[in-house]
Design a protein that fits this description.
By secondary structure, the protein is mainly beta. Helix content is about 5%, strand content about 30%. It has a five-stranded mixed beta barrel with strand order 2-4-3-5-6. It is globular, with a radius of gyration of 15 Å. About 40% of the residues are buried.
Length: about 180
């Protein structure tokens, strides 16, 4: 599979299909470290290292920063925030590093270190460091895998507990796709 050549920022949101849906971009590690995360420009996410793989999608509904995005229609690479616990990894598109408006286009991370939204209900820590992550019933969010871990539902590994760097978020190794 070829890699897409890009000259504009990965957080650019488009109103038209600027790249082919499903296009893949490999962000080199030096750019990952330099670019940080679109989740917050006021916070230093010190664990963002290594290459990241992004995929170009169309949002069928509004996507927030840090949302886990699921395939939503019969058309490939169209998605919205996932709203189900332990969604199968094969149904997911990636994690949004920036907001993407409904009916707009943008890039989501499908592999590498990123910042992900966590279940923060009840004010507790739903994500702990070194825990396997799965999707949560709250739209777009993730949580620790619990009980018998279903391998095809694990979407990554928490590198910190939620809220350690930024409230309701955690840095994580993401592996979707």
């Amino acid at each position: 599979m070829g890699r897409t050549v890009k000259t504009d920022a990965l957080n650019t949101v488009y109103t038209a299909e600027q790249y082919g849906l499903g296009s893949v971009y490999l962000e080199p590690s030096e750019e990952v470290a330099a670019n940080g995360s679109g989740v917050s420009s006021a916070v230093t996410f010190s664990l963002l290292k290594g290459d990241r793989e992004w995929v170009f999608i169309k949002a069928t509904s509004a996507i927030k920063v840090g949302d886990v995005v699921v395939q939503t229609s019969g058309a490939p690479f169209e998605g919205a925030p996932v709203a189900g616990s332990e969604a199968k990894r094969a149904t997911l598109l990636g994690v949004a590093d920036h907001a993407i408006a409904a009916s707009s286009y943008g890039w989501v991370i499908r592999k590498g270190v990123g910042v992900i939204r966590c279940d923060a209900s009840g004010g507790g820590k739903s994500v702990t460091q070194n825990a396997p992550l799965v999707t949560d019933a709250t739209a777009g969010e993730c949580k620790n895998a619990s009980g018998t871990i279903i391998a095809d539902a694990v979407i990554g590994l928490a590198l910190e507990a939620n809220g350690d760097t930024l409230a309701d978020f955690a840095q994580a190794y993401i592996d979707i796709g």
